[in-house]
Amino acid sequence: MVFKQVGDGRPYPDHARTAREWAEIPPRPVRLDQLITTKKVLDLQSVLANDSTFYGDLFPHVISWRGELYLEDGLHRALRAALHQRPVLHVRVLDLD
C-alpha cells in the first residue's frame, strides 16, 4: 500500500492558512505510508503532466491532527513519488493538535 489510508474529505478543523503562511513552515521528510489522503479521486492527466509542480508550492501540505498526518494538498506529487519508488516525500507539516 502506498498511503496509510485513502480518505475522502478533511476531518480536521479549518486552519485558514495563506500560501505565505505555508511557505514559512520548513519542509521535512515524511514516509508516504504515514499519510492519509483527503481526496480519493485525482486527475491522471495532472499526475503525468511534465509541469505538474510548476504552479503553487513545490512541497505538499500535510496537517497533523489527532496523531494522524493528512495530505491536504499535493496528492499528485505524492503519487509521482510513489511511482518513482520513493517512499519518502518532503512536505510542509502544520500541527493542529
Which features characterize this protein?
single chain, 97 residues, alpha/beta, Conserved hypothetical protein from pyrococcus furiosus pfu- 392566-001, ParB domain, 6-stranded mixed β-sheet, 3 helices, 20% helix, globular
Describe the structure.
By secondary structure, the chain is an alpha/beta fold. It has a single domain, classed as Conserved hypothetical protein from pyrococcus furiosus pfu- 392566-001, ParB domain (Alpha-Beta Complex), CATH 3.90.1530.10. The protein has three helices and six strands; from the N terminus they run βαββαββαβ. The protein has a six-stranded mixed sheet with strand order 1-3-5-4-6-2.
Secondary-structure topology with pairs:
Blueprint: E1 5-6, H1 19-23, E2 28-31, E3 35-37, H2 44-48, E4 61-65, E5 68-73, H3 75-83, E6 88-95
Parallel strand pairs: 1-3, 3-5, 4-6
Antiparallel strand pairs: 2-6, 4-5
Please, what is the average pLDDT?
88
What gyration radius follows from the Cα positions, in whole Å? 13 Å
The end-to-end span amounts to 27 Å
> How much beta, percentage-wise?
25-35%
Number of separate helices: 3
Order of helices and strands: EHEEHEEHE
Looking at the structure, what is the overall shape? Answer: globular
In short:
This protein has 97 residues and is an alpha/beta fold. It contains 3 helices and 6 strands.
